[in-house]
Task: inverse folding
């Protein structure tokens, strides 16, 4: 039996995170990479810029890997290095090599801006003072992260700005001590089933049908996001993981759309490219989100032709010629309107296939025809073939818009499956 996977904790610091000024992108990035490296993330927490709080968080961990982000700058509220030293009972020491590196970074940055580096040098000594035995990482900015092996674990401290964090984290993942922890997962395997249009409770029922029980040999996790459901099957028993994955995939049928991490927009793009088709979209409720997801895929210019945001009802008539009588009879949020919009987009001759999405995102339920959260998606393709989907999506406005955009891409994907 392979050895148990190493365990990790992530501690992010910063008042700006706790006050909602900045979203925590770092934990997501680190968690994704830990998963890829076979290291189990056991906990994640956020602390204020308060040294006793950071110290307490570090002392409370018993994982083999502790990753901290933030609080490595030159100002008075950057307290992470001091907190790490105190929590690990290590003295703080000035590192002359780090002084040299940070001064060089400041000079480079100042030269790029055409400013005097002098005023920025005041924080160099603070940023170059690290816990004894720490190995400094090459900084992307002026804050050097560091690694220190102490307290029976590997302690990794990274700068808070996401771009700087990624640069330092890449160095950590290549470090021998980190590689040793990742190597403990040798023999552990993971497979993923990504599904759409099926509730978690239904998948849980299918797992019961298979007689599944979580254990070291095989563990199943369900993760719902933006209307999709990701099923992770992982463990030390490769045969059992494969059996469970294949059995569940068989029961899920067409609800499974992928067995990898590729986003649905990229999958749609590949399908379009394979068929030599160019797609477009007409959006109301999603306000351009569908187009944004498609355009974000590298190489999208090969298969994404155009997007139109026809938000108010008159725009649907003025931009795409939707019959006013149809709008009056069925309403702007209807299967008929969605179908007319996608057909009109194809009729422009700009694209071969088009997806449209209309709906009510709220917040107030002010409509007689349908409740807030009602969404209609329509696809019109070559030869006049079309598909229409109606969905009720619960949640706040932003959640309805995001899930509606993802639904639009899935309806387009299913349409292309039939082409």
Result:
């Amino acid at each position: 039996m392979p050895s148990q996977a190493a365990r990790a904790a992530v501690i992010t610091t910063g008042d700006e995170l706790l006050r909602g000024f900045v979203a925590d992108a770092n934990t997501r990035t680190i968690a994704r990479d830990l998963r890829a490296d076979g290291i189990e993330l056991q906990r994640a927490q956020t602390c204020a810029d308060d040294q006793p709080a950071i110290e307490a968080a570090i002392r409370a961990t018993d994982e083999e890997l502790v990753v901290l982000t933030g609080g490595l700058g030159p100002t008075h509220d950057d307290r992470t290095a001091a907190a790490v030293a105190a929590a690990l009972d290590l003295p703080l020491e000035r590192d002359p090599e780090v002084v040299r590196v940070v001064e060089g970074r400041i000079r480079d940055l100042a030269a790029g801006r055409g400013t005097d580096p002098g005023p920025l040098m005041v924080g160099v000594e603070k940023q170059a003072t690290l816990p004894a035995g720490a190995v400094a990482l090459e900084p992307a900015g002026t804050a050097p992260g560091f690694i220190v092996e102490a307290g029976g674990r590997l302690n990794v401290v990274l700068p808070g700005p996401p771009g700087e964090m990624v640069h330092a984290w890449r160095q950590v993942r290549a470090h021998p001590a980190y590689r040793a922890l990742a190597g403990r997962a040798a023999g552990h395997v993971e497979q993923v089933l990504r599904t759409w249009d099926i509730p978690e409770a239904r998948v849980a029922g299918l797992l019961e049908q298979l007689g599944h029980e979580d254990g070291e040999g095989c563990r199943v996790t369900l993760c719902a996001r933006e209307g999709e459901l990701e099923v992770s099957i992982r463990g030390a028993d490769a045969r059992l993981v494969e059996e469970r994955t294949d059995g569940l995939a068989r029961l899920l049928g067409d609800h499974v759309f992928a067995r990898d991490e590729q986003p649905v927009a990229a999958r749609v793009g590949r399908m379009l490219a394979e068929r030599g088709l160019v797609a477009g979209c007409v959006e109301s409720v999603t306000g351009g989100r569908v187009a944004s997801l498609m355009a974000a895929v590298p190489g999208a210019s090969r298969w994404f032709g155009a997007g139109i945001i026809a938000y108010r009802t008159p725009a649907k008539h003025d931009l795409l010629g939707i019959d006013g009588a149809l709008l009056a009879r069925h309403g702007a949020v209807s299967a008929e309107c969605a179908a007319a919009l996608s057909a009109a987009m194809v009729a422009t001759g700009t694209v071969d296939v088009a997806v449209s999405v209309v709906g009510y995102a709220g917040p107030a339920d002010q409509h007689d025809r349908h409740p807030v959260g009602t969404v209609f998606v329509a696809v019109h393709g070559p030869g006049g073939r079309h598909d229409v989907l109606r969905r009720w999506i619960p949640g706040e406005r932003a959640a309805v818009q995001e899930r509606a955009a993802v639904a639009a891409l899935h309806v387009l994907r299913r349409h292309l499956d039939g082409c």
